Amino acid sequence: xxxxxxxxxxxxxxxxxxxxxxxLLKDAANxxxxxxxxxxxxxSGIPIYNQDLEEAENESVTQLRExxxxxxxxxxxxxxxxxxxxxxxxxxxxxxxxxxxLNPFTGKPGAIMSASTGMLGGSRAQYHxxxxxxxxxxxxxxxxxxFVTFAQTKFDADGHLKDxxxxxxxxxxxxxxxxxxxxxxx
Length: 186
Ligand SMILES: Cc1cc2nc3c(=O)[nH]c(=O)nc-3n(C[C@H](O)[C@H](O)[C@H](O)COP(=O)(O)O)c2cc1C
What we know:
The protein is of the alpha/beta class. The protein has helices at residues 20-28, 59-70, 87-96, 123-135, 164-183, and strands at 6-12, 36-40, 73-78, 109-115, 139-140, 146-148.
């Protein structure tokens, strides 16, 4: 890493080993604009939120929060569960954003993508996620919206995106995210 490199922290909303969203998240690293890098963070060690434990030390929570805090932006790649955000992802955001003085999402540029096996590509989850990040005062990139529909057909055998229109949307969103992150560095 060099000092001028823009680091974006990415995390996913699916815990499943064969997750299509995890493939999308990992492949996004190959589509980052020059001078930037995606650092993919795991979320599986984050405990269930309990306000009684807000001030308690937890290494997984501190690590993820600090990773986001030290990066110039974040990327969330999530499935849609029952027309909304997966419960565990909402929990991760709740845990990491509290106590509110430690919320790493405040003022931070962020981007969202979703992949689904259905024809709406997780759009409803994305809109709910945008609302959550409004509550946290993040700067979520509006466009392009990246909804990967019928996601089981969009990756090659090595787990890379193979659908050119999807790749263009992903690249455009990542470019916009990194441009926004640069503005926040000025
Ligand atoms: C609990 C559950 C609820 C789901 N609900 C939706 C849904 O509301 N909309 C949708 O498009 N797909 C839904 N799906 C299908 C997911 O799009 C599909 O399982 C997808 O592969 C999950 O993402 P992943 O591969 O990253 O784990 C649901 C799947 C599960 C397991």
